[in-house]
């Protein structure tokens, strides 16, 4: 049995699962050599990348829901409302608007547009896998200095961005996965 590798793997698993390192396992790992140090450093780095923000539910009032349905009704064949269901804690839903060929949800810190057309195809960008999704791929690109993320959702495309860079890409990616069909 490779005892040093086993200790390193156990320590890494403990850090990843609990986010903490006990003094006993840290001292045992320190005595096993260079290989363990590399694994411990990697585990500690991933543990330190915990999210420093929280998400909260978006609660739509009856009046807001009516305006959302009305916005989607402006498009033939595009009536099923898809809505953001989560937002960064501290953000707030302001209103819904129809612009061009999309329905846009305006929040205090972000915008979420749902469209039948992919607006990102003509831009160069970076493809990412959205966190906590079933391997959904999105594309980050810039329009007028603003970072925008577009990803497919059934027969629609969702674009999410933060005017004035008020939210980070990481925060927007976490909110993006919570755009779903509205279920009253």
How is the topology of this model organized?
Blueprint: H1 3-18, H2 23-30, H3 34-48, E1 55-57, H4 62-73, E2 82-84, E3 86-88, E4 93-99, E5 102-107, E6 111-115, E7 126-129, E8 137-143, E9 146-153, E10 156-161, H5 169-176, E11 179-181
Task: Offer a quick outline of the entry.
This protein is of the alpha+beta class. 32% of the residues lie in helices and 30% in strands. The chain has 2 domains: 3-48, no CATH class; 55-181, Protein Transport Mog1p, Chain A (3-Layer(aba) Sandwich).
Key descriptive features of the protein:
Protein Transport Mog1p, Chain A; seven-stranded antiparallel sheet; disordered N terminus; 184 residues
Description:
With 184 residues, the protein is α+β, with helices and mostly antiparallel strands. It is 32% helix and 30% strand. The chain has helices at residues 3-18, 23-30, 34-48, 62-73, 169-176; strands spanning 55-57, 82-84, 86-88, 93-99, 102-107, 111-115, 126-129, 137-143, 146-153, 156-161, 179-181.
Roughly how much helix do the residues carry, as a percent range? 25-40%
Total strands: the figure is 11
Query: Quick one: overall form?
Result: globular
- Helical stretch tally: 5
The structure class reads: alpha+beta
Compute the number of structural domains: 2
Give start-end ranges of low-pLDDT stretches: 1-49
CATH class of the largest domain equals Alpha Beta
Stated plainly, the CATH topology of the largest domain is called Protein Transport Mog1p, Chain A
| Global mean pLDDT | 75
Main β sheet profile: 7 strands, antiparallel
Strands in their spatial order, largest beta sheet: 4-5-6-10-9-8-7
DSSP strand (E) fraction? 25-35%
Distance between the termini: 57 Å
Gyration radius, in Å = 22 Å
* Architecture (CATH level 2) name of the largest domain: 3-Layer(aba) Sandwich
Order of helices and strands: HHHEHEEEEEEEEEHE
């Amino acid at each position: 049995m490779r005892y040093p590798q086993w200790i390193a793997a156990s320590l890494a698993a403990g850090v990843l699962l609990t986010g903490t390192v006990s003094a006993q396992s840290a001292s045992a790992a320190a005595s096993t050599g260079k290989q363990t140090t590399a694994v411990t450093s990697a585990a500690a780095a991933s543990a330190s990348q915990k999210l420093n923000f929280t998400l909260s539910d978006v609660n739509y009032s009856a009046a807001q829901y009516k305006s959302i349905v009305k916005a989607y009704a402006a498009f033939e064949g595009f009536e099923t409302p898809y809505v953001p269901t989560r937002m960064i804690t501290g953000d707030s839903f302001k209103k819904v608007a129809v612009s061009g060929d999309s329905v846009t949800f305006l929040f205090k810190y972000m915008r979420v547009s749902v469209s039948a057309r992919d607006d990102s195809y003509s831009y160069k960008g970076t493809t990412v896998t959205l966190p906590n999704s079933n391997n959904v791929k999105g594309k980050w690109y810039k329009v007028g200095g603003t970072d925008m993320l577009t990803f497919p959702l059934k027969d629609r495309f969702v674009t999410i961005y933060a005017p004035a860079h008020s939210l980070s890409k990481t925060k927007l990616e976490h909110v993006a996965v919570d755009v779903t069909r509205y279920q009253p």
